[in-house]
Amino acid sequence: MSEEKLADFLKNGKDWSRVRTSVPGVFVLKLPAYRGSPTRLAAPCGLYCGACIDYLFYKKCHGCSCNRGECDASAHHKNCDVYKCCVEQKGLETCGECNELPCSKLIQFCYSPIWLSHLPVIENLRRQKAVGVKRWTKEQEEAWSNEWYLQRWIGLQKECENKLKQSFADSKHAPQKKK
Fold first, then answer.
1. Cα separation of 55 and 36, whole Å?
2. pLDDT at residue 140 greater than cutoff 50
């Protein structure tokens, strides 16, 4: 990428843009202002990050589109095979851009008995393709604006989190934090 193209991209490119360079595996990213873009809550896999406990309750994550390294999204990226495939290997913003949608990896992610909250991802990606990520994000904001429903959702996520911690403690196979 020439310096002129890079300067133009950084000045005029859309938020959360990712452009390949002539160096294999190196991309140029243009990030929006912190929490400035509603589409940042559209995860590459099709989840809506605005309904995540790390975002809603703990306030430790800015959404899976965050690449700043200062939030929990970094840990999610390291452990997520879907993110690795979509963003790191294929250079896509979402799985909806992939010709293989839905691939086996995404189907396994969607129907995992451990993560029932992943069930809508394939339909979410199809909806994003149909109406665009910006409109889909607004639809999600509206759907999750019901305070009664949202409080029960957070309660359910906390309950699942506690059961998972207890399960790890009982089995003595708790994951070790890296130092």
1. 15
2. yes
